[in-house]
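Here comes an entry:

___
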Amino acid sequence: MKKIIDRVKLGKILVSDGAWGTFLHAKGLKPGQCPELWNIEHPDEVYDIAKSYIDAGADMVETNSFGGSSFKLVHYGLADRASELNEAAAAISRKAAGNKFVLGSVGPTGKILMMEEVTPEEIYESFKEQAIALEKGGADAIIIETFTDIDEARLAIRAARENTTCEVICTMTFERTIDGEYRSMMGVSPTEMMQELVPEGVDIIGANCGNGIEGMIQIVKEIRLCNPDIPVLIHANAGMPVYNDGKTIFPETPEQTAGFVKAIIDAGVNIIGGCCGTTPEHIRQIAAVAREL
């Protein structure tokens, strides 16, 4: 069975991986260094991260390519190596995943379309280059994640769908407002995300970052009010960040995260993983509860 959505259709609750950025920094990535360059210069360390999540029970693992667009890589003088770095990222995760799924990570470009800093055509071409390289390296799906702008997400989805045979996943990042609603930084609600992006042909949709797993429950419920059928993926932080002694700490323990797994499954999630601050132990405990249920 080669597609994630086929597994979901069988009623399986699937488990994704956890944080990458915090893991890379723990392994020695310095502020200001390019994470994607580690796919070439420190491939064993990147492999170790991917393999640790597979060993913890994940059904899928992402790639070290979140900032792998030419628009992000230009800050390191590496824009002309985008294809190379993304293909290497996917190849490393493919090796670690074995017969499990590989999700090619695609993050925002950092450009604001409405400010006319860049054209839609330029954004599309950058995402196209990244998606093609990720598929070439062995990705089964392209995960367009941590987006806040509908128009940029739409371009990324189209670039992946029109230029690869990969499944396409899109997750946006929402934060709770003072009114108790959830909105992206650009003002997009989960309902608006569903209305705008599902028609683009995305295979799996959801949310990542911005919330701990408890906060994601309301987002899943809102998604399900819009569409009861589309597979939903959630990558939650290990709680909300706490700033302590100059460091950002994500305080939610693996046990605390696991305590909300039943509730988010009941809300309608199909795939559960982690974002900032989550570790292989978080994934191990999520997997244990998901498989019991």
Observations:
- The two ends are 22 Å apart (CA to CA).
- The longest helix spans residues 120-137.
